[in-house]
Amino acid sequence: VQLQASGGGLVQAGGSLRLSCAASVGTFNRYTMAWFRQGPGLDREFVAARHRSNGATYYADSAKGRFSISVDKDKNTMYLQMNSLKPEDTAVYYCAAGPVILSSITSSQGYHYWGQGTQVTVSS
Description:
- By secondary structure, this protein is mainly beta.
- Helices cover 3% and strands 48% of the residues.
- The chain contains one helix and eleven strands; from the N terminus they run βββαββββββββ.
- The protein has one helix spanning 27-30, and strands at 3-6, 9-12, 17-23, 32-38, 45-50, 57-59, 67-72, 77-82, 91-98, 113-114, 118-123.
- Strands 2, 4, 5, 6, 9, 10 and 11 form a seven-stranded mixed sheet that branches. The protein has a four-stranded antiparallel sheet with strand order 1-3-8-7, with no helix packed on it.
- A hairpin with a 4-residue loop joins strand 7 (67-72) and strand 8 (77-82).
């Protein structure tokens, strides 16, 4: 499985960005997909996920109401639409895939495959 994240950049607070994660064919049918992020000096944290079995989506409290995860199977691409961005959203964002069970969907340990990360910087 290969994952490649893109779409990061510099945006002002209140703005929007859409991150993309290009995946190998069939990844979305085999694996749960997720976005994680790692801010400066911080641990990697869960942002959002889409479960393989039914496409149900899950979000960190910090992302609820502002971020939206989706996949386009025809394009083999996963997206993270981020609106109303805040300076505390500044981080490197990673896409990930793995055979993750629902009870562990927010833990990075179950995700076996990772993209290279894309930097998001939100200025105040």
